[in-house]
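lol so apparently i was supposed to do this last week
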Amino acid sequence: MKSAIYLDYNATSPIRDEVIEAVTAAMQAVGNPSSVHSAGRDARARVEEARAQLAAFVNARPRDVVFTSGGTEASNTVIRGCGAKTILLSAIEHECGFAAAKEAGVPVEVIPVDANGSVRLDALETLLTKAEKPALVSIMYANNEMGILQDLKAVVKVAKAHDALVHTDAVQAAGRVPLDFKELGVDYMTLSAHKIGGPQGVGAVVLGPTVPLKALVSGGGQELSRRSGTENVAGITGYGVAAMEAMVALGDMNHIAALRDKLEADIRAHANDVIIVGSKGDRVANTSCLIMPGVKGETQVMHFDLNRICISSGSACSSGKVKVSHVLTAMGFAPEEAECSIRVSLGYRTTEEDIDRFVDAWKSIYNRTRAR
Ligand code: PLP
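anyway here it is w/ pyridoxal-5'-phosphate bound
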């Protein structure tokens, strides 16, 4: 039997060996970081070391890093807890952004994107002119479906001219491009460990030194009362190590981009009707969103799965119904095109042989459907 190939790093990435070692060591130790005895102090030291590692990873102050249970909780905390009177989100945000905004109990506006997936700054400007202050502008750095990067510095410039707060969901940018919280000039950032080789169920909010943040989870006052609950010491320890590894691995992004480009070039050479979404824009190196006209994404995913290749379809299944990707429709794709998309996302273990096997499998389904 063929070995399995994992090309779904944007869903979750394989945990790095160094992370497993660090998590195991932390789990073998006992101690609540709030306890004053030596075991508690050891646990506290693990959490604070990870906080310093995360802060170095994004160039922020350690005290401005708040650990959460993941990206979803981080975005909910910011969007519901920043005190905004209006929330403006891009049309291509992750579901957790839209769901959090709905819960915030204030008017929500959607900022359109252009055909390439870039946020329309003219529309942002118009919406901000009408928005009740203070407004929150929430725009993801890299999109999870097609990898497009936003010009966050330009977004911050427009937002700051209207005294708005800026949040970025950097879950898919982390580990793919260098992150510099201070240089970007945003007020809040959402992060998640499991997209960069860390454990699932850990993430963080990074925030500016003076911006408001009301806790979403209250209780014992951990994380400087910004997120209560006994810290996930093992998970947080693993996150710190994953961040350090991811920083080093940024040096491999050119290699990953070359693999992704080879994949796209091989497919394009074979099929002139394939659509490579967002290929004209600035994208992260590891993501490719491919539309095979006439062949539904779920059908393709099943075909790849039978060939022992793990990828995602662009559309999501919720309550038994297939939902067409809001990202692709926001970019102007017709629903019948959007439902034929798949997402391939590469990572640190991806090899050229993996890409060749993926391309062969892609060609085989394409040829079969075109022969009818
Ligand atoms: N934001 C983006 C862009 C994501 O891709 C994801 C995960 O799919 C999340 C947020 C949610 O992160 P988590 O799975 O840690 O809750």
